[in-house]
Amino acid sequence: MTVLVGLIVMTGMLVIVPAGLALMEVRGLCAIRRLWPLGAVPGAVALWLPRGPLATTLAVLYALATLALALYAPVHLARTLRGPGALGRASAETALLTALVTPSVAALALVAERSGQQLLGFDLEILALTVPHFHFAGFAAALVAGLVCRAADGPAARFAALSVPLGTLLVLVGYFVDDWTELAGALVLTAGMWAVARVTWRDIRTPEAGRLTGGLLAVSSVVLVATMLLALSWALGEATGLPHPTLTWMAATHGLGNALGFALCSVLAWRRLKETAQ
């Protein structure tokens, strides 16, 4: 695992996921969020150790923390489906439920990669890149899509909240099927993320939000357009054989942009929006 990928993953583990859980306002997540460092810190340490039993053990501790999130998802789903207005909340809650589940996919890949074992036929390089992908294109993307849909419910916001989980699922399925399925997932995910950017720019980034918050929202929206274009170019190249960026280049551009320009800026902005609303 390269230094850059390790730093990106650490940002997801130690900053984006716990901060995102605080933004969800989902009853029952408080205990998991308080205990999150017990899994996230060992997971972060595992990134920098040589592959072997110790790194694997620490990665397993992180996997257990992500499993707790994934197991809470059906509990939250049952609560969401009860009460008035359940249908209207379905789009946003679908995205937030996806955010609860995707870190476990990243953690499973991390355990396999740190143990030096291929998983389901995927080599160690792909597993290493799967870890940041499902922290950011999985957790962060679904989280922000759900928050946007909660705050600015409308056709574009509902489309974003449903297409981001669908695109994430199709990309995951494409790992096992073929590059064309992965390309389809990239197309759907890109459409969803561009919808997130559009609604954020138009409806969330208001004068009332303040200059700093508006700036953070603007950066996250603009970065999404660029990083998802890179994702499309890579997926298209993989499917067709056309020239496309290397995985190393994708980590340095698409990965870093999503981690800092999109995910971190979004989480900071939504935290400020939450504080303003209180």
UniProtKB/TrEMBL annotation:
This is YndJ-like protein. The chain crosses the membrane at residues 6-24, 55-73, 94-112, 132-152, 159-177, 183-201, 213-235, 247-270. The keyword Membrane applies. It comes from the Bacteria. The keyword Protein biosynthesis does not apply. Pfam families: YndJ (PF14158). Keywords: Membrane, Transmembrane, Transmembrane helix.
